[in-house]
Specification:
The complex is a heterodimer of chains A (about 80) and B (about 575). Chain A has about 80 residues and is an alpha+beta fold. Chain A is built from two helices and four strands, in the order βαββαβ. In chain A, the strands form two sheets. In chain A, strands 1-4 form a two-stranded antiparallel sheet. In chain A, β2 and β3 form a beta hairpin. Chain A is globular and about 40 Å long. Chain B has about 575 residues and is of the alpha+beta class. Chain B has 15 helices and 17 strands. In chain B, the strands form four sheets. In chain B, strands 1, 2, 5, 6, 7, 8 and 15 form a seven-stranded mixed beta sheet that branches. In chain B, β16 and β17 form a beta hairpin. In chain B, α1 runs parallel beside α4, α1 packs parallel to α9 and α5 packs across α13. Chain B is globular. Classes of the chains: A alpha+beta (about 80), B alpha+beta (about 575).
């Protein structure tokens, strides 16, 4: 039984121009209660935070604690 | 961080292990450490203590403060006994009521601010049917940060991102816990002289009507591990059939009315804008009226604020949109709804276990002791009814001090290495397969059947069907679940806790063959039956590995309830409503 991938639009959006993951910041990843954020490499070699797992309680520590205001928490589409 | 599954196991020792760093846990750890600064106190969380638990972003008020001059422990104990339909061991409620005021003062000294009037006195509001207990926290967004500062100052040993999966017991006493790292799958065995569980509600039991698995009323990381672990360790769980069901904004998982909007003039209304319940305090009886109105021609149900003055609405909006569930502002902006113009559609939440709001929890006494020596429970998962955030802090404090005393008098219990090995095999089984069913589908199916068959009104034949479906899912989970990384491993363990809680919910509900607690245990085939069911029900793991229940007498009351007071919470419906809407 192979697994399929189901696409979903994710609620947490990171502005990679503002994200300072390159400088070692992992604040949003650390504070998330559901542990759904990760740091990833971009095509230009810089790093950014992103939402890896669509398992969001839209509680907002990631947005509130981000030192550069790079994170926005939207309401998941299913309940928007 | 690749979420790769690594092989590894470490063991540590401590005097007091606190599992869960939300609300009760930090206070328990602080109090244990304060009592003996030399003690090794470990605070473990599957998330990060900085932002974990129900109060991750803060809290908008104390819903049940017993402040001298406004309320007495006798009055509060009476109120909660009546609100919980009489099924209440009053000693724990009374002790909470006596000890919560010094806790408020202590929280104040941590920098958590409460609303005060012009004279500098606490500005307590009336929301409950009888007494005055609600203390707003207009700056409640600071609560987690203030707590975390105290934990660092006290040098509590904090371990983040480890999920406890099972308790270890030896000779009927607690010996520690097995934990697994949520990002590497490495194991940690914590040997502890005493263990305090403060792991929150079982909030991911029912499925929100949006179908989004994580859109739950409770913090979605509160998936019921505390209930499942207590059950497997052999502890008794009380009155699980008294579900948590709350009135919420439709589609958004924020609470609505009672504690923030109520004291400022907001109320729950039907489609005609008419008030239909006397008192917006959350009780099973109130939820039954809410449910009836939703189902009636007067439905749906709304939060009504559009009759209030601009400055009042602004204040309500500020609190609702900044503290506790701050994405609420985004939600209303997206829908184009404005409290000033529109009534806001409300609905009832999915079901869960949570003593914070109802009475379904691990059975504890007034010292927060469970039925297993050395094992404590506090907060939403311990069955002190309606205990809310201040109950978590206060009962956490009680647990911390008592657990420290327990640890001082005993040596470590031996760790059962066979049990550790058996648990490693259970946890990792789904990682050893090449394909199969992912945890999210196991979870979705469980929770969808919870909604189909367990959501009140409860019907015997439906609940029996649920048992069949849950047994089939359990077979799939044990033999076919497939996990690809350590993050999914955490979700698979949560799915297992959720299924355990579903089994317990249905078993407990079938056992109590009467109706009680309004909607929470509305069994349509049975009336309330005080003669046979004025008692707790205690659920434990039976010899056959399945839930079994027994009756436990309610302990003699400390505060007597007069006959004419007993039904105060049963008279919720506004008498004029029926006529008003018929006109």
């Amino acid at each position: 039984m192979p697994l399929a991938h189901a696409a979903s639009t994710v609620p947490v959006v990171v502005n990679d121009d503002l994200c300072i993951a390159d400088k070692g910041c992992t604040v949003c990843v650390e504070v998330c209660p559901l542990d759904v954020l990760r740091i990833t490499d971009m095509l230009d070699g810089r790093k950014t935070a992103h939402m890896k797992y669509d398992e969001c309680w839209y509680c907002m520590p990631c947005e509130a604690d981000c030192p550069t205001g790079a994170v926005t928490v939207n309401i998941p589409y299913l309940l928007k | 961080m690749s979420d790769e599954i690594l092989d590894g196991i470490t063991q540590i020792d401590c005097d007091v292990l606190v599992i869960g760093g939300g609300t009760a846990g930090p206070m328990a750890a602080l109090k244990a450490k304060k009592k003996n600064p030399k003690a090794n106190v470990v605070l473990l969380d599957k998330a990060n203590v900085k932002r974990s638990g129900a109060i991750s972003m803060g809290m908008d008020g104390l819903n049940n403060s017993v402040i001298p001059g406004y309320a007495t422990p006798e009055q509060y104990t009476k109120e909660i006994t009546i609100a919980n339909d009489g099924i209440c061991d009053q000693a724990a409620v009374y002790r909470y009521a006596e000890e919560c005021y010094p806790i408020i003062q202590e929280l104040d000294s941590f920098g958590i601010r409460f609303q005060k009037d012009n004279n500098g006195e606490y500005d307590v509001k009336k929301v409950h049917h009888i007494g005055t207990y609600v203390l707003p926290m207009p700056n409640g967004d600071t609560v987690k940060k203030a707590l975390y500062r105290q934990l660092r100052k006290a040098r509590i040993n904090i371990i983040n991102r480890y999920m406890a999966t099972r308790l270890l017991t030896t000779d009927a006493r607690v010996a520690g816990a097995i934990c697994v790292n949520t990002r590497s799958a490495e194991f940690l065995v914590v040997r502890a002289k005493s263990v305090i569980m403060s792991m929150g509600a079982a909030g991911r039991l029912g499925l929100p009507s949006s179908g989004y698995l994580y859109g739950t009323y409770e913090n979605a990381s509160n998936s019921g591990e505390g209930y499942a672990m207590s059950y497997h360790a052999g502890a008794a769980l009380a009155n699980l059939e008294c579900y948590q069901i709350n009135p919420l904004i439709k589609d958004y998982n924020g609470p609505a009315c009672a504690y923030v909007a109520g004291p400022l003039g907001g109320y729950t209304a039907n489609a005609g804008g008419e008030r239909f319940i006397e008192c917006d305090y959350w009780s099973g009886q109130m939820m039954q009226e809410f449910h009836d109105e939703l189902q009636s021609g007067n439905g749906p149900v709304y939060l009504k604020l559009n009759h209030l003055a601009e400055e009042t609405v602004s204040e309500i909006e500020r609190v609702l949109h900044i503290v506790e569930r701050p994405t609420r502002g985004h939600f209303h902006a997206g829908r184009g709804t404005d409290y000033r113009k529109d009534m806001i559609e409300m609905h009832i939440s999915e079901i869960g276990f949570c003593s914070g709001h109802s009475a379904s929890g691990v059975y504890v006494d007034e010292n927060a002791r469970t039925t297993i020596p050395g094992l404590y429970a506090a907060g939403d998962m311990a069955n002190v009814p309606h205990n809310y955030m201040l109950g978590a802090f206060t009962n956490g404090a009680i647990a911390g001090e008592d657990a420290l005393d327990f640890s001082a008098d005993v040596d470590f219990a031996e760790i059962d290495n066979d049990a550790v090995e058996a648990e490693r095999v259970r946890v990792l089984a789904a990682t050893k397969r090449d394909d199969g069913i992912p945890p999210n589908q196991i979870e979705y199916k469980t929770r969808r059947f919870v909604n189909d068959y367990l959501q009140p009104p409860k019907v015997t034949a439906k609940m029996q069907l649920a048992q069949q479906r849950f047994a089939e899912i359990r077979d799939d989970m044990e033999n076919q679940m497939y996990v690809r990384d350590s993050h999914e491993l955490m979700r698979s363990l949560e799915a297992s806790s959720i299924l355990d809680c579903a089994d317990m919910a249905v078993s407990a509900s079938l056992y109590r063959t009467e109706s009680r607690w309004g909607l929470y245990h509305n069994r349509v085939e049975f009336e309330r039956d005080d003669e046979n069911w004025f008692c707790h029900t205690l659920l434990t793991k039976g010899e056959d590995g399945k839930p079994t229940s027994r009756k436990e007498p309610v302990k003699p009351y400390i505060v007597e309830i007069a006959d004419d007071e007993k039904d105060a919470y049963n008279k919720q419906r506004v008498k004029a409503t029926a006529t008003a809407t018929a006109e």
